[in-house]
Amino acid sequence: MSSTANGLNRKTLSIAGAEIELFEGGEGAPVLFLHSGQGVTAGDPFLALLAQEWRVIAPSHPGFGKSSLPDWVDSVDDMAHIYLELMDRLGLDKVDLIGCSIGGWIASDIATKVPDRIKRLILVGPVGVKVGTPDKLDIPDVFAMPQEKFAQLIFHDPDKFRPDLKSLPDEAIAVMARNRETLALIAWEPYMHNPKLKHRLHRVTAPALFLRGESDGLVSAQYLEKYAALLPNARTETIAQAGHAPQLEQPRVLFEKALAFLNA
Amino acid sequence: MKAWHFSENAYPYLPPADQYESIRVNLPNRNYDPEKGAKLYDRFLDEWLIAEDEGVEIMLNEHHQTATCVDPAAPIVLGALARLSKKARLLILGNPVANRRQPVRVAEEMALVDVLSRGRLECGFVRGVPYEVLPANSNPVRMNERQWEAIDLIIKAWTSHDGPVSHEGRFFHHRNINIWPRPFQQPHPPIWISTTTPSGARTVGARGYVQATFLSGFDGTRAIYNNYRQGWREAGRGNDVPINRLAYAALVYTADSEKRAYEGADKLLWYMRANKVPFHYQYPPGYMPVPAMAQVMRGAALDQHAALKDKMVVEKAIEAGIMMAGTPDQVYAQIKRFYEHVGGFGHLLIMGQAGFLEHDDTVHGIKTFAREVYPRLKEDYPDTAISGHGQDRSAGGQQSEQSLRHAGLGVVNPVSS
Question: What domain range is B401 assigned to?
């Protein structure tokens, strides 16, 4: 275990052949945070805020960050099973669950598998279901667009989040490449969804809050509404001046919404 | 040495390149006129048969959703060629097996062509180019692993003769494998693989299949062949690698005068110039290893593409070893020089038609090569020649995986692999 800059500890757990890195900090009721396709780092400002209020556990999904990717893992379902084991190992009998984007999909999947162990569920720009017509992708194809267009779709203000690819250390760029590779592995086909998930979400009895940034170009307002309607006890809210990643663009607003919802 | 006439069946009648984003993947097919396309198929089939008459073998390949190669179902054209041709070997290079959902179906198609042609099939397998993962809907991650499992499954289907067998692997599952017909050639048709990575070439060498590489130039090709030979020897296949295990695809145009040859060769460069493909189609996640992809993200690819652009004139392309062009004497000398640099290879895959190189000029190139260059190559480089003598202990012999991957970044090859 090692301590990071903002008081979160980094440690690793071996689960079913995967070495899972996770960041943990804070005290109180446990909150499991499942990151988006962009991964999670110890310096994540949203994590630091969460750790002021709760015991935060933020793993890197298999194949993301520094977590290894066993050959057998190639789906969200696989990752959900790894996290069920992680919850057992960390003694998280009941947990609040926050998931962003692909992490929202994993969170939804976990909630269908063990509804009794989820206290409250917050999904931020989640993917994972197919709610639209067959002749149009519900989520624009992130694997078939220029980087600039991608930046415009996921950020309200892309200029603030342009990585300097020339000066970033090799390791950081390699993590970006690897995150994207693993995202393709698990979300390529069916694209960004599991056709079964929407028939399983009725099992999720925990109160759920669906959030999206108002400028999110990947998860539309309509998608979010239809997704939330698949759960018996869910509502939606919008975050202003944010795109697909409110945890980066509006961490404090997101934190305050989480605070209000999880403490309700 | 064997020479092969290779045509991609390109459809060149396109709007100006500045009016579309990419010649592949998203170019609307309203730009394709089926009348013109039908005439092109007739013409390209004729050219293959002319090559056969001249003693040259036949090669074709497959690409998808692109104007550069309007042969999205190569086994079908191969079936036509199996009946139209009489004696040429028929090389398909190849079947993109990482993109095919049913390897057993591929085994059936190839067995059928082998029987139809009375055992003239040379069966190539390719991983597929990066910009074809979208058209094929094929997950770009773990393609290599899928490709090898598919190849092994196809060989199992070809060589099992006692009723159904099954396969429950990592990527493919098949309960009842009992193909009819079985291949004409025993135990199965010769296998070719195209690969551009050192580890890939070592694997192909270890298995003893024919290794083909496309437009990889002097040093890139030498590195790939070195790794092939290394894999061959480490697998206990003996010290001597016959040249007929190694193939090289280059743009080749031979004519009766240097001027005419350079004019024809310049038209062949359409292959390179027309290959307008945006970054996000060229570099899907997972297609290349993470360290190489990281370099690409840093901008390495842009430098490589700039370097490639420089080679798009005949003299530069010849210098780079991706083209052989000129009079018969010149082409012979260029091939000889290339042969010696890479340590020897036994198959020259001649990309002898592209873009606006019209029928008469294409035929002139085929005939001039076949009559005035090919006999010398056959004499100098018999199939029994050995590849790699005096090569493998020199500087290029043992290049690291990493340096080769970096060197190979620009080999997002317009043609195949």
Answer: 2-410
Note the pLDDT tens digit of each residue in B242-295: 999 999 999 999 999 999 999 999 999 998 888 889 999 999 999 999 999 998
**Angle between helical axes of A102-113 and A170-187 (0-180°, round to 10):** 50
Q: Is residue B168 assigned to a domain?
A: yes
Nearest C-alpha of chain A: how many angstroms from B335?
Answer: 40
For residue B414, which phi and psi values (nearest 5 degrees)?
Answer: -65, -20
Name the strand (E) or helix (H) holding B90.
strand B90-96
Per CATH, the number for A2-262 is 3.40.50.1820
- Min Cα distance A179 → chain B (Å) is 9
The identity of residue B18, as a single letter, is D
Residues ≥6 apart with Cβ < 8 Å to A232: A202, A204, A205
Note whether residue B217 is domain-resident: yes
Q: Are the C-beta atoms of B193 and B126 separated by less than 8 Å?
A: yes
Average pLDDT over residues B78-86: 98
Question: Among candidates B413, B270, B320, B375, which has minimal Cα distance to B55?
Answer: B375
Residue B415 domain flag: no
Q: How many angstroms separate the Cα of A248 from the Cα of each of A57, A122, A173, A174, B344?
A: 18, 16, 18, 20, 56
* B290 contacts on A by Cβ (under 8 Å): 174, 177-178, 181
Q: Check pLDDT > 80 for residue B194.
A: yes
The pLDDT value given to residue B402: 41
Domain residue extents for chain A: 2-262
Spatial separation of the C-alpha atoms in residues B305 and B357, rounded to whole Å: 24
Using an 8 Å Cβ cutoff, are B145 and B152 in contact?
A: no
Q: Which helix (H) or strand (E) holds B47?
A: helix B34-53
Interface list for chain B against chain A, based on CB atoms closer than 8 Å: 25, 134, 137, 139-142, 170, 278-281, 284-286, 290-291, 293-294, 297-299
What value does the mean pLDDT take over residues A216-233? Answer: 98
Structure pTM? 0.94
* B157: Cβ contacts below 8 Å, ≥ 6 apart: B103, B104, B107, B108, B177, B179
- Residue B404 confidence (pLDDT): 42
- In 3-state terms, what secondary structure has residue B389? coil
Q: How many domains does chain B have?
A: 1
* Of the partner residues B285, B293, B294, the one whose CB lies closest to the CB of residue A143: B285
Cα–Cα distances (Å) from A210 to A89, A97, A259, in that order, read 28, 12, 14
Q: Which helix (H) or strand (E) holds B408?
A: none
Question: CA of A147: which chain B residue's CA is closest?
Answer: B280
- Residue A51, CB-side half-sphere exposure with 13 Å CA sphere: 19
This model of the complex carries an ipTM of 0.94
pLDDT value of residue B310:
75
For B308-397, list the strands marked E by DSSP.
323-326, 347-353, 386-387
